[in-house]
Write a structure and sequence with these properties.
By secondary structure, the protein is of the alpha+beta class. It is 16% helix and 30% strand. The strands form three sheets. Strands 3-6-5-4 form a four-stranded mixed beta sheet. A hairpin with a 5-residue loop joins β9 and β10. The chain starts with 12 loop residues before the first strand and ends in an 18-residue tail after the last strand.
Length: 195
């Protein structure tokens, strides 16, 4: 059995979570969420964030993924990819927030303008999660029956990674930094920072 979710390495943000209500009250009101308090660890580290809203992320991204059944998806993502549930809301459950260390996602069910790849017949995006031990993550995902569409390998841009598809057809890349590679060495064009 996989020992638990691997740690993630983020270069730019330090994330801490603050709850504004208990799970029971959150379930009663399906529209209230708690989101991370983010402090920049980048070149702007000396600048303070003047406003913090515990209901909306600051300077970060929270991906919303559509599943046919969010409860089943939560169980699958926990068992196969090592995610942990943060909270759920709605009666019946219509949304679940999960995390793999500092990578947070929101699971939602289909609604107007959104649909699961399982119902569409194709995916519309892909997510990359940086992990500390991609070999262990790969072994667990394969053992638990994930559909691997890209085998574990090292890329020309210095990442050791593999690709897997979840129960609703969302495509994921799990990656570990293997080498520090200059983007220009493999053909990328680096845009100079604006002054």
């Amino acid at each position: 059995m996989y020992p638990g979710p691997p740690l993630l390495k983020f270069a730019f943000f330090r994330v801490s979570y603050h709850h504004t209500r208990s799970r029971s009250s959150a379930e009663a009101d399906s529209h209230h969420h708690c989101y991370p308090d983010v402090r920049a660890d980048s070149a702007f580290a000396n600048e303070s964030i003047t406003m913090n809203n515990r209901s909306v992320p600051t300077s970060t991204m929270l991906a919303h993924l559509v599943y046919r059944n969010v409860s089943h998806a939560s169980d699958w993502l926990t068992r196969v990819f090592g995610f942990t549930e943060q909270y759920r809301y709605g009666r019946p459950v219509s949304g679940i927030q999960m995390h793999l260390d500092n990578a947070y996602i929101m699971l939602t069910e289909p609604r107007d303008g959104t649909q699961s790849p399982a119902n569409l017949g194709y995916g519309t995006q892909m997510l990359t999660v940086i992990v500390l031990d991609v070999d262990a993550h790969y072994r667990n995902a394969k053992h638990e029956g994930a559909k691997v569409w890209e085998e574990l390998h090292e890329t020309i841009y210095g990442e050791r990674q593999y690709g897997a598809e979840d129960l609703d057809g969302h495509r994921w890349l799990f990656s570990q930094h293997a080498r520090d590679v200059d983007p220009e060495s493999w053909g990328a064009t680096v845009v100079p920072p604006r002054l």
